[in-house]
């Protein structure tokens, strides 16, 4: 069967990209009949993976808020994401990630969005951009070798690690069309869902999505998205919804759960990819803007500090002729 997860990062900021990502692993055995029995991949890979703080030889796969904080820096989150990428088919024979730059990572995980990213000058790489940004390359190689061996021993395979990088300009265009911020987010969640179901429902599929804002009922949305499929509502409550899709021999369970990152390792992995790519792109953002105005403080793009940053850069942005709808989110 396939266990997949979808999560987002950067929904609240007024600056920087919105990220939606998905991860999927192939596991031995069929799709469980019990909708409350999500396979525990942490347990299967316990020799090399933990949901708690990373230790020597182990990587932490958990909600990105547990793995990353500004005070900790990016090294742990980056190392763990790149270690996961190193188990994918594009890994080089030497055990290092095939990516030799952040641009390579974006090409591997978000290829359809590279043109949108490149269209905004503040996301251009500097000539001397380090890679990894903060993590140890040798540490990534060591953990990747351990993880790769345990994955093989337990017949587990990471088959998807993909992201949608929604730049400010693209985000604003979509919000203008939908008139709704939550609908804009679900547009990208549904893209990931559709791709995963089309690719993997024939194997028996379970997708665990983090809850979308305050929504607790998803049946109508899923019927619209998967027209022609039979849909059964297995459970709906204030904290979780389980939905079973059938189409001939294809079977997919889609779950929306509060704190889905604590229930499903792929959902946690998706959370980490989202956060890593957003932080890496904000690193570029600040690396482009700050040198143009000595003394300008970097920003993470969240509302209060974003308003401060916009006030600090008002004159600079006017002198550069920066279009507001290309830089600042409308909602």
Core attributes:
331 residues; two-stranded parallel ribbon; 18% strand; 40% helix; alpha/beta; 13 helices
Q: How is the secondary structure organized here?
A:
Layout: E1 2-9, E2 18-26, H1 41-44, E3 49-50, E4 59-60, H2 64-67, H3 75-85, H4 102-109, H5 114-118, H6 137-153, E5 157-166, H7 168-178, H8 181-200, E6 205-210, H9 219-225, E7 230-236, E8 240-247, E9 250-257, H10 265-289, H11 303-312, H12 314-320, H13 324-327
Parallel strand pairs: 1-6, 3-4, 6-9
Antiparallel strand pairs: 1-2, 2-5, 7-8, 8-9
Helix pairs in contact: 3-6, 3-10
Describe the structure.
With 331 residues, this protein is of the alpha/beta class. It contains 13 helices and nine strands. The strands form two sheets. It has a seven-stranded mixed sheet with strand order 5-2-1-6-9-8-7, with helices on both faces. Strands 3-4 form a two-stranded parallel ribbon.
Quick structural overview:
The chain is an alpha/beta fold and 331 residues long.
**Rg, Å, rounded:** 20 Å
Estimated helix fraction = 40-55%
Please report the distance between the alpha carbons of the first and last residues.
Answer: 39 Å
Average pLDDT, rounded to a whole number, is 93
Beta-sheet strand percentage? 15-25%
């Amino acid at each position: 069967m396939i266990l997949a997860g979808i999560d987002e990062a950067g929904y609240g900021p007024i600056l920087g990209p919105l990220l939606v990502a998905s991860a999927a692993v192939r596991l031995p055995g069929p799709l469980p009949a019990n909708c409350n029995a999500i396979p525990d991949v942490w347990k299967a890979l316990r020799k090399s993976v933990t949901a708690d703080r990373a230790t020597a030889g182990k990587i932490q796969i958990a909600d990105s808020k547990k793995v990353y904080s500004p005070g900790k820096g990016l090294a742990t989150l980056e190392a763990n994401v790149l270690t996961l990428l190193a188990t994918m088919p594009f890994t080089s024979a030497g055990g290092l990630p095939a990516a030799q730059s952040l641009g390579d990572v974006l090409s591997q995980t978000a290829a359809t969005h590279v043109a949108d990213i490149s269209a905004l000058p503040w996301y251009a790489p500097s000539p001397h951009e380090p890679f990894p940004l903060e993590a140890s390359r040798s540490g990534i190689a060591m953990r990747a070798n351990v993880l790769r061996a345990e994955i093989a021993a337990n017949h587990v395979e990471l088959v998807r690690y993909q992201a949608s990088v929604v730049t400010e300009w693209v985000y604003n265009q979509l919000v203008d069309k939908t008139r709704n911020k939550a609908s804009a987010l679900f547009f990208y969640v549904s893209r990931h869902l559709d791709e995963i179901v089309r690719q993997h429902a024939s194997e028996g599929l379970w997708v665990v999505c983090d809850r979308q804002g305050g929504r607790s009922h998803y049946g109508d949305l899923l019927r619209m998205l998967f027209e022609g499929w039979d849909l059964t509502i297995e459970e709906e409550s204030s904290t979780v919804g389980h939905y079973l899709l059938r189409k001939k021999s294809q079977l997919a369970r889609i779950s929306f759960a509060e704190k889905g990152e604590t229930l499903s390792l792929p959902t946690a992995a998706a959370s980490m990819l989202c956060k890593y790519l957003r932080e890496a792109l904000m690193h570029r953002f600040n690396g482009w803007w700050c040198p143009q105005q000595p003394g300008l403080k970097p920003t993470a793009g969240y509302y209060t500090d974003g308003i401060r940053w916009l006030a600090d850069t008002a004159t600079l942005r006017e002198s550069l002729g920066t279009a507001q709808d290309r830089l600042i989110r409308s909602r």
